[in-house]
Amino acid sequence: MNTIEFWFDFGSNYSYLSIMRTQRIRRLAADAGVRVVLKPFLLGPIFKAQGWETSPFVLQAAKGRYVWRDMERQCAKYGLRWRQPSVFPRNGLLAARVALHGEGAAWEFDFCEQVMLANFADDREIGDEAVIRAILAGLGVDSDPIVAAARGDACKAGLRARTAAAQSRGIFGAPTFFVGDEMFWGNDRLEDALALAGR
């Protein structure tokens, strides 16, 4: 079975669009005999390597104005809830560690979806441990062992390695999709990645 790797950051607004489409994409992928694998990572170190201290949507005012209007249009197009975050980009560190720890778990995709909704539809602080615990509890998952593992050394090292892998593969933004070594950047390239994976 071919695989689409879906690399994303919880602070990335365009990753929100793709995560919220993942349930549908997973069904299409299954029909095409393709597996979707989530790869949470951190964009911050990649931006820092470019000499940026924050998102280019913050550094470039015109791009920032454009992107928020574009998000309104894209969310309307997909029928998604949308509220511009009062803080951008938000710290997705703990969420990314929890998602990394939960890879392969039954709650993995739902957790990622709920964190994205918290950030980009409900304007909640996803860097707050209480928010992450509430999301896990809402999914019927015991948050204590998961948060403890996410704060552990193994998970910290795992996320650093994951982000280093993103850099070594040439990732410069999120979401990014890989089919083998073929890279697709941006939410609007998700279907192209799926088409290639289904061949």
From TrEMBL:
Its EC number is 5.99.1.4. Residues 3-192 form the DSBA-like thioredoxin domain. The keyword Isomerase applies. Keywords: Isomerase. It comes from the Bacteria. SUPFAM superfamilies: Thioredoxin-like. It catalyses: 2-hydroxychromene-2-carboxylate = (3E)-4-(2-hydroxyphenyl)-2-oxobut-3-enoate. InterPro entries: DSBA-like_thioredoxin_dom, GST_Kappa/NadH, HCCAis_GSTk, NahD-like, Thioredoxin-like_sf. Gene3D superfamilies: Glutaredoxin. GO terms for molecular function: isomerase activity. The keyword Isomerase applies. PANTHER family: GLUTATHIONE S-TRANSFERASE KAPPA (PTHR42943), GLUTATHIONE S-TRANSFERASE KAPPA 1 (PTHR42943:SF2). Belongs to the GST superfamily. NadH family. This is 2-hydroxychromene-2-carboxylate isomerase. It comes from Telluria mixta.
